[in-house]
Structures are given as C-alpha cells and as structure tokens.
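Reopening this ticket.

The earlier resolution said the output was attached, but the attachment link was broken on my side. Pasting everything inline this time so it's all in one place.
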Amino acid sequence: MINKNASTQVLNQDSVLAALEKSLAMIEFDLNGEVLWVKQLMLVNMEKALM
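Inline output:
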C-alpha cells in the first residue's frame, strides 16, 4: 500500500538553513541591547516601515 501523505522530498539541513538566512530580515543584539549586526534585508524592511 502506498502512503499518499508521505513526503518524498528530501531536505538537506544546511540548504534549508541557508535558504532561511537568505530570505529572513535579521538583526542580532548583544546582552546590553547593542546591535551586533544587521542584515541588508532588515534595513530595507525597516526603511519601508518608517515611510
């Protein structure tokens, strides 16, 4: 019997993480709330929100 609900897609964990990092707007803070780094996509989204 064939399970029609079973996924045949094989996901590579590194590929999934790379795709998420590429598509997400990210910002990282230290424990004092200082910005450590900001991804360009985050800056673009913040600029649009301020308009």
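Reporter confirms the inline version is readable. The CA atoms of residues 25 and 44 lie 9 Å apart. The mean pLDDT is 82.
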